[in-house]
Amino acid sequence: xxxxxxxxxxxxxxxxxxxxxxxxxxxxxxxxxxxxxxxxxxxxxxxxxxxxxxxxxxxxxxxxxxxxxxxxxxxxxxxxxxxxxxxxxxxxxxxxxxxxxxxxxxxxxxxxxxxxxxxxxxxxxxxxxxxxxxxxxxxxxxxxxxxxxxxxxxxxxxxxxxxxxxxxxxxxxxxxxxxxxxxxxxxxxxxxxxxxxxxxxxx
Amino acid sequence: xxxxxxxxxxxxxxxxxxxxxxxxxxxxxxxxxxxxxxxxxxxxxxxxxxxxxxxxxxxxxxxxxxxxxxxxxxxxxxxxxxxxxxxxxxxxxxxxxxxxxxxxxxxxxxxxxxxxxxxxxxxxxxxxxxxxxxxxxxxxxxxxxxxxxxxxxxxxxxxxxxxxxxxxxxxxxxxxxxxxxxxxxxxxxxxxxxxxxxxxxxx
Lengths: 203, 203
Description:
The structure is a homodimer.
Chain A: E1 5-10, H1 17-28, E2 32-34, E3 37-39, E4 53-55, H2 58-66, E5 70-76, E6 79-84, H3 85-93, E7 97-101, H4 104-113, E8 118-123, H5 127-136, H6 142-157, E9 164-167, H7 171-186, H8 189-201
Parallel strand pairs in A: 1-7, 1-8, 2-7, 3-4, 8-9
Antiparallel strand pairs in A: 3-6, 5-6
């Protein structure tokens, strides 16, 4: 059985990271999945346990934090949101590719727990283009767009903490680039050890 | 201008490394080339300076060694063979992909001089298949094949010193895997720095 691969994806809001990863997961079928977050907020109509989120109580979430069972977490409003370690480990053990879409802040802890993870940062072709895309959504107020642009600048400064940079100019090319990175990472020596040993031992 | 990429390729004799790289270089055209070795042996009819080898005197070769201008070298019979650093540096500066096909022994020094190089080890699908291929050449005597198989076993043990392992079972797949690795490496943060800075500075 081949070793799984944990792929951490970060990007400023508006860079299209969700669109890219949803498309790749659809293409890869059973081989890949997006990590499901845990939250303390209530389940909404149409949502399902383990699909949209794992729903837990505040007490449970805080116990998970204390026990080191959260890969990363944050608070939004009065609720916790984060990634539980267990399901990620389970999928990796089964040789799957797991995508973890997280904030730059959360990325640091992930490498400590999963040293072999691959960190990809998605950048816009330009700040001008990013602003155009944010405005194109038509849903955000002027001050929200200004704030998002400021956050984007701060986040881009930290892209150097990642292994790979993928520019999302043409969507298809960004998808192809990330698929290329995944395939290359699967050829890395740490993942190919089993195959290598097989050839050597049957000598 | 994008930064070049030095790709070190090693493999036991009979694994098809030359066939693979020749094919990739043909496909990549002006973007890639195979590093030309330097030798002290005489030029043979049909050979050309800088195409088959750089031809130098024994004194010149030894001076290059003393001056640290040889990336790696070896002796075969009474002649020196090796890779001069200069032409590789020049091509990398021009953003090219340079393939360096060398023995496992020579690979160690390369990373010291070019820390960003990518090291790929090509393995056969099995030792049985390797032996079959060596016999298939029809040109080697029994003891030569036995010796090559022994050397292959020793070399395979050192594959763990490489970044990537590519199995050459189906030629087209091995070619595709190495092209994938090259593309992925071109998306690495150290190479994408320029693009990243461009986006940040035009903010």
